[in-house]
Fold these 2 entries.
Entry 1:
Amino acid sequence: MHQTEIHLAPGVPDIGALWATSFEDLMGLGGALVGEQRGCVVRETPRQKVLRLPLPGTSDDGARPGEAPRGAGTGWIFLTRYGAGRLAECLAARLSQPRSSSFAARQWNLLCHLRKHGVGTPELLAMGEVTRPLFSKRSFLVTRALDSMQPLPEWLARHPAPLARRRAGRAIGLTLARIHSAGVHLPNLKATHLFLASASVAESPVEGDSLQGDALQGDALQGDALQGNTCAAQQIAARLPKKSAHPGKFRRLPEVSLASARGARIDSALSPSTQLDSLRQLFISLEAALQPSPREAYGVFLLALGRRLSRPERRRLWNQLTSSGAMKLTP
């Protein structure tokens, strides 16, 4: 019989705070969790099942009288159960950075790495896997839902004013710059993967986003080991630099979080062309009514990857971006 491992974030006292008594409960092998009665299945494929359910003590119209929190706070969570993937997917998760022993550990490591570099992500609560010599065929990941935020398309539809769109574009550009600075490639980036909140955070220069003086402990990549749990309890906005390097241009920008790192990998030598692919995928995924104007798109482009390039290289990449079949923009 194979052993199992469960890793909990500092703010989660035990798996009872997640309705469970065992690894099997969280994998759905021992029947449905109590919280599933009030939740729903968000996505289900032969290799993955994602459920949205409340933490104990979360109130809504269906809350049972006397229900109390169990130490992890209240609110809604996502429970992702991973099964056996394709051989190519398993090899990629095992052999490319961050090398991980399961699909759940891969997501945990990627999100921890991004949070360490100042990128907002869902709060990590728990991860578990069946221990295997090479790669686990069963694992789960629990994250807190971004309920106070909206997907980018929904946010843009609710905030059509030009000033709001410009500030959103600037916040997204800075977020993409931090992602690129962290060496993370997002080949499947879509507009629905970026969540924005109306609450604002101070604008900060990319050069000051490495947070080396305030780095999370225990998160550095070490082989294929699961990264430290300390990142789960951090509030990214509180850790960003409080002052802009350009006081005259200080603004309040929407908070941005990356909801999914599916298919991502860490590569310290990301080329500008590879970074451009993520930006292209983001723009293409927006419906026509929400597509950025040429000026808005160029502003995001400059912040995301253009400012550190020479003028000829910047022009070449911009032309490459605008000449793609799904985009017809001119600066």
Entry 2:
Amino acid sequence: MKIVIRILLSLVVLIIVLVAAVFAMRFYNTQKWGFDGDMEDVNDLSIYPEVFEGGTVEHFEHGAANGFHFIPDDPNDAEPIAVFGGSEGSPNTDTAEFLAENGYEVYAMFFFGADNQVDELNRVPLEFFGDFLEYADLAGTDITLLGASKGAELGLVLTNYYDEINNLILYTPSSYIFMGLSFEGDMASSWTYDGEELPYIDLSQSDFGAFARTMFDFAVLNPVKYRETYESAVEMNDNSEAARIDTGSFDGQALLIAGGDDAMWQGDVMAKQIGEDLGDNAQVEIFEDAGHLFLGPTALAGMMMGGTEEANVQAGEDSDRMVLEFLEENAVN
């Protein structure tokens, strides 16, 4: 009996020590990373600009298309640019404003979460892009598409359905279609066309060790590194080839930009894969010391982005220059 009691007491002490260790790590990581859980509501239209230096901004909504039209007072003679953000759901208006200040007409768009769209990044109907072309009267007109992260995945997918996409600029892109992100646990493809889900990589079919490390990071409030999960899911899914994004329909020029220390997913590897598929039509630029975002922070919203602050900022400045050079060469009439 005494032995049993000692064992139980030892287990209680062990549990107390483990709980204390978890709370200590949570406190440490909160102080280190400063995550407060508050994120800007990207669907609040009041946070977006109505003017920029050298032009105006108009909100538009048509069918399932929703976004902002950046109109320069003195526009370049160039094809218009469609811009997407990533899985945070923003229309990437900072990039749109940068381009518009350099004379380009830009449409910055939501692809989920807006009033006339699906609520989550899950089973997003690609036909919203056709609604955009109809609204902007751009059907049959060459356009450049710029996407970042999940928006880059979307951009490459759209080339299989809309011939209007003449040039691509993809930041930390994906060469695969990955599963959608649903807080309701509805596991499905990110994208649909004509009511049918496109083949996708299921992230639940990934390495258990990667899953366990992710859960541990969640528990102790350490920024989560998702890259290993994405990499192992590509290796472990039986339909990886079916989920690979076809590039055969795209015959324009592409600028593919990624960080070599991307902690979110293997954006550098996938940029090179896309570049190999497109051959001479692709320019691939890898910033070896940069992470997923070229903004500075190495972690954001509880997720590890990678890189160093200095390398990320430098990659942002250098990639801005590359984008303008690419547009001058390929998008200006």
